[in-house]
Amino acid sequence: MAGWNPWHGCHKLSAGCKNCYVYRIDGKHGKDSSVVSKTQNFSYPVKRNRRGEYTIPSGETVYTCFSSDFFLEDADPWRPEAWQMIRTRQDLRFFMITKRIDRLALGVPPDWGNGYENVTICCTVENQDRADYRLPIYKEAPVKHKWIVCEPLLGKLDLTPYLGDWVEEVLVGGESGPDARICNFDWVLDLRRQCMEKDIRFIFRQTGAKLMKDGKIYSIKRQFQSSQARKAAINYKEEESVRFSYKK
Question: Are 101 and 132 contacting, i.e. CB atoms less than 8 angstroms apart?
């Protein structure tokens, strides 16, 4: 597993951005997250060591642009070069999450076609409003590998109008941080039911900092949020899932 942030910084777009972990971390260091800039790690996928070998070995999954959004408008001048590196490293799997699926057509390279086989583009939907706006666009988008990411989950979601064999996985999680909003376990279980009915892989990735279960609100420290989600033992078709791990 490798992490590649070709640029850093973003602009809050919707309800899920309110307590953005990038803003929270940057704030601790007096950094303005709304300033978007290329990083020193921009060329990481094609970087080589002294022996001339790629720093990222073949076969790795590369978690891409997790401190920004790959389709952010500010990054339009830099994205073509990023695509070139992704095209060069077809031996890697690039995994990215976006709230800007409506900008996909403006942000893919000329040879994109139906998508690159080595690229998974996930669409975030944190509430019903964003699901109803983004998922019709996402369903028709030319992307080879599609995951729906319901994180932070901010309310009950009905995904049944959109779920189908075009979705590889639905990944769910609560919100982290000191100001985290409550995630209700009933919402999580209902999404699991929807996925099982459509035979779609479902992963409960993390509880978030505040989880409501059986009418009681539990405060869960960051280091236990993923392990507590696993202990719930509600994942469906987990054996088929790609390992997915990043800090929020």
Answer: no
Is 137 part of any domain?
no
pLDDT in tens, 48-105: 999 999 999 999 999 999 999 999 999 999 999 999 999 999 999 999 999 999 999 9
Domain co-membership, 157 together with 115: no
How far apart CA 79 and CA 181 sit, in angstroms, is 33
Short-list 148, 227, 217, CA closest to 180: 217
> Is residue 155 one of the residues assigned to a domain?
yes
Nearest CA to 21 among 228, 222, 226, 202?
Answer: 222
Does residue 132 form part of some domain? Answer: no
Residue 144 in any domain: the answer is no
Look up the domain containing 201 and give its range: 151-248
